[in-house]
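[Structure tokenization] protein backbone as discrete codes

[Encoding] learned vocabulary of local backbone shapes

[Begin record] amino acids and matching fold tokens:

___
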Amino acid sequence: MTMATTLAVLAASLAAAGLLVWLERRPAEPGRIRFLPTTPLIFLSLVVAVVMLVHIVNLMGGHTGRY
């Protein structure tokens, strides 16, 4: 994966986390069920962002593993 692709995935995951946090903080409407499980999706998007940050460090020459 190139640096441009990694940065695009990082930006998309951070944007998704921001959107999901905004959806989570909206007031609940009585009688309406939320079908989107925002909390696990926020966690997943932040995990993807951390993996992309580690990948950026690896692309720049840093070693993050045991080797």
